[in-house]
């Protein structure tokens, strides 16, 4: 009972997990002039601070290793992969949040995050957390393109939009908040049907961005969902172990994303989509954390490390670990800053292996 109450509350603050990101502009002939991120908490750099939602990370211990120790809304101890991608491309060291009124359109011209912690590909997933749906995020991007044209002129805005890197990191919440843990959708869809539904939503989003002028899109696959500390904690059959069934769900979903990438590269003129395999990378890190300089890959840094995320992380600071760099996860679902930096490397490195144009 306690566990289920706790879990509800944990998930009320959880959201989306891992990864996502954009394109290896470093290897493109023309360096990317901007990075745009869409998705969930893995790339929300603070948008949820400005909407009514419980999915917020703007209090300690979040942000404790961020510049100035500020809790910006990022669900980690420091920066996210979207920030590191922007940094690696020589743009801003941290990606601004679209809804933050502190930024003018001129600040946002080299990149912005439209993401919202708790968002899923499925609108219902986003609604569970009162997060912004992916459609709303794309509406904001459309609005942004208009503002950019007014601020920079049509030609300059077009250049930015067509050469930018677009990072999508979304989908974990659909399984964690919605299908696998709380089977909101489980009554209506079989697993293959739900996966097909989600992939169709991803396709619609990429097509919308392409229609607005985006070309280089990095679709970050799901992480090994079953190895998130929270999933280990609630694994009733083998407590403490990864939930292999949930890992297989993530893997089969990722297989569908790979096929989507091939299909859209074929169908959309000039599109350069890349699938980013964070599953294999994170699985390797989780299996042998010491090879990557980590000490712990089974617990998060905050609290007991097994179940806390969101406000639960702020309750007992005495338990929070000393050095988050030793931990793969900062809370029971979100990576630490160091892990995000490694994921960003994978995003930046990933290039199209099959060019159709
Ligand atoms: C989500 O809602 C928007 C706006 O109502 C709609 O256009 C879109 O098709 C919906 N997405 C899915 C996956 O149902
Ligand atoms: C990305 O490439 C750099 C340079 O080759 C390498 O050091 C780094 O390990 C790569 N990152 C990943 C995650 O593959």
TrEMBL record:
Q: Which organism is it from?
A: Brachypodium distachyon (Purple false brome)
One Pfam family cited in the UniProt record for this chain: Lipase_GDSL
- Which family is annotated? Belongs to the 'GDSL' lipolytic enzyme family.
What's the gene? Answer: LOC100844104
Protein's name in the database: GDSL esterase/lipase
Specify whether Protease is a keyword of the entry.
no
SUPFAM superfamilies in the cross-refs: SGNH hydrolase (SSF52266)
Which range is the signal sequence, renumbered to this chain? 1-16
Superkingdom of the organism of origin: Eukaryota
| Keyword check for rRNA-binding | no
- Alphabetical keyword list: Signal
Q: What is the lineage of its organism?
A: Eukaryota, Viridiplantae, Streptophyta, Embryophyta, Tracheophyta
UniProt GO molecular function: hydrolase activity, acting on ester bonds
